[in-house]
Amino acid sequence: KFVLIPIEKSDFVIKIPFNGSYYDGWNDGKDEEVVFEEFLDAGVVSNWDYCAEEEYRYNIAKELNFHEFFAQTKFLFEINNYPIYIQEKCEVFSQLDDDSVSHSVEENNKTSSLVSNIDEWLDINWLTDCRIYYGEEKFQSFCKYISNDVQWGDLRGDNIGYLNNRPVLIDYSNFNDLDNTDKYDLI
User: In DSSP terms, which residues pair with 77 in a beta bridge?
Assistant: First the structure.
């Protein structure tokens, strides 16, 4: 996805899905060339549109009463038959000062004891913020929801954050076009 952050103070960002990626390839094993590879596995809604998948997942989460854990992504319009989306503007977890998002060992251990395996791939401090903000019961239900499906495998620090101090998922469409991830240079 390409994300545009309006210069003027706004409460949203613009998301434009990539339809593929370029990587350095080989021409008959001899000369290096740039190769374009279309995305083919974005999800249920589209083969290539990861923003459409994100909007779909938000709507499912809303049906299950987990939408508050997500920054909402929604379709805005098309330009030349190409979809444009908006999402609530958030603070990205990986861009925050470590001191502002860290908890005591005791708090993090309490969080770890409530979830199984999820703290191995989601930052424990962000999870602790979720536990404190939403309460243990809602937090555990949400963790169970996202740990029961492989679609949530790309929730690293760049894809989680805060919406007005509320812990949320920011980029939650995963990335399924993994065959050539080591060679991708997304543009």
Answer: 84
Ordered per-residue pLDDT tens for the chain, 187 residues: 999 999 888 899 999 999 888 877 665 666 667 878 888 878 888 889 999 999 999 999 999 999 999 999 999 999 999 999 999 999 999 999 877 778 889 999 999 888 866 756 788 999 999 999 999 999 999 988 888 765 777 788 999 999 999 999 999 987 777 554 444 444 4
Terminal C-alpha separation, the chain: 9
Q: Contact at 8 Å (CB) between 11 and 88?
A: yes
Enter the pTM of the model.
0.84
Distance CA 143, CA 126 (A): 12
**CA 56 – CA 102 distance, rounded (Å):** 32
